[in-house]
Known about the structure:
Elements: E1 17-21, E2 25-26, E3 34-43, E4 45-46, E5 49-50, E6 58-67, E7 70-77, H1 81-87, H2 102-111, E8 124-128, E9 131-135, E10 141-144, E11 150-154, E12 164-165, E13 170-171, E14 177-183, E15 188-195, E16 203-210, E17 220-221, E18 225-230, E19 233-235, H3 237-240, E20 252-254, E21 260-266, E22 272-278, E23 286-292, E24 295-302, H4 307-311, H5 314-320, E25 329-336, E26 339-344, E27 349-354, E28 366-372, E29 379-384, E30 389-393, E31 398-400, E32 404-407, E33 417-425, E34 430-437, E35 443-448, E36 458-463
Antiparallel strand pairs: 1-7, 2-35, 3-6, 3-36, 4-5, 6-7, 8-9, 9-10, 10-11, 12-14, 13-14, 14-15, 15-16, 17-18, 18-21, 19-20, 21-22, 23-24, 24-25, 25-26, 27-28, 28-29, 29-30, 31-33, 32-33, 33-34, 34-35
Amino acid sequence: MSDNAFMPGFRSLDRELHEYSLPVEGSIPAWLSGTLLRNGPGKFEGGDARLRHWFDGLAMIRKYEFADGEVEYSNRFLRSEAYADAMAGQPTGQFATDRSGVGKLLGWLKRLGPPEPTDNANVHVARLDGEYVAQTEVPRWVRFNDGLDDSGPFAFEDDLDMDMITAHLVADPDGGHVGHGLSFGRSHEYLFFEIPDGSRRREEIASIPTDSPAYIHSVGVSASRLVLVETPLRINILRALSPFTEGFFELLDWEDDADTRFVVIDRESGETVLDQTVDPFFTFHTINAYDDGEETVLDLVAFDDATIVDALSLETLATDGFDAAPPGRFVRFRLGPDGVSRRRLYDGGLELPTVRADRQTKQHRYVYAQATDREGANGLVKVDTERETATEFWQRDLYVEEPWMVPRPDGDAADDGVVLAPALDVDTERSVLLVLDAATLDELARAPVPHHNPFGFHGRFFPQ
């Protein structure tokens, strides 16, 4: 099989299904009851134009609903303005795909300024104030219902003004969600905020001024602290003012002479308790953070630099496959009054990491992630952070996406439950949903989907 046999994962899907009963090979535990919602790209063209980057694909929600050992599947595109524009052959305003040149300049003049940011909410999902919300990294989120029908934009009921906002809200097991954003102006600011349960109001926790804002995809949140990880991948604000750039992608610069900076903030007071730099690295995803006395423990996936961002362009993937994508490394940082220490906890490559939902902001033992840096497949890995050991699941020609651990009700052990993970079988060019034993990663069941799903990004399990 060719080195880029995974390319069906970057091929558009037009088919939509509603409450389709999937065949089950094996046995899904009868106690598993609830909904796995996944978000990610479903289409990579607008008219005759191929989009430029994986991050540009049009948002499609996938739903897997579990009850009594059975699973129903639905998938549907968000009928956003970005979707309508792409269907009309004008796929603009995305991460790396936009108009440029004189045509874009005329559009700016007609609107007396830049157009609104995209509502192509293809990154993540959350449940806020009783509604499902599809999220992206600008403040144009989209509501949808149980049937995956759009319900219009999700509007916050506050006056916080942010130009970028995280799609990685941290659902605190003790209540509410914590997020961050970025505001551009004469003085740029990183903002941290909390959304109380049953609310659409963001309450500011802290703001951090910056002269050179970085692209920050996620942050660390412990029970009492927040961690900003500012890497050398910076946003060139002056270039953003030019109509001759195409997409946010072209605003990003890796500053070779910059370090990576940690800023630790007290959640209650909003005061900075640590501000320190370390040797440069890049990260998309923090895994989890927790308090250990005066220290904050932060797990994340680290890359040597930002090569991974370029490597995920559709042209590079089609030409070089995943060979151009460097592996991410599981690194644990301890941030405290005596400085910053670093330790690698897994020798392989990984990405799209998760911990069980009730361990977010608290000390965790197990991390589940997509395992990378092997040829012909990727897999799943379970890392035991106490023993510093790992268990892996692999099947050749199977490309596995982000895993989600669902604990068994009344289970005693921290890994008593199942892991749910979508995967693409490139041999049959069909997707499957894997159900694995969370302790051993033994396969309990798989449910084949009647079509391929393009590779997605993130999701959550919502118990019944």
